[in-house]
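Worked Example 4.2. Consider the chain below.
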Amino acid sequence: MYQIGKKVREVRMMRNYSQEWVAMKAGITQGALSKIEKGLTEPSAATLKKIADCLEVDINVFFEKPVSNSVWSTDSLIGRLIARVRYWWWRRSNR
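Applying the procedure from the previous section yields the following structure tokens:
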């Protein structure tokens, strides 16, 4: 399962914001934000919206799936296309 807290921490660190500052702006305690980031508790939708506003991102950012590291992997469109061409070529040459 993809953890929302991990993404919250990632965005917060990328913005160079402290837990204390984000928690204060979101109206929650620093301990509560810490628990969210560690995955010990799930935030309510309202709290997550407040955190997103503090971090200046859309709330959907916390739900996005990680992007594959390579365009050549079979998770990408190019990777799937290359895999099909390779399979077609292999079948053709083994007739």
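Helices lie at 4-15, 19-26, 30-38, 45-54, 77-93. Residues 20 and 30 are 5 Å apart (CA to CA). Compare this with Example 4.1 before moving on.
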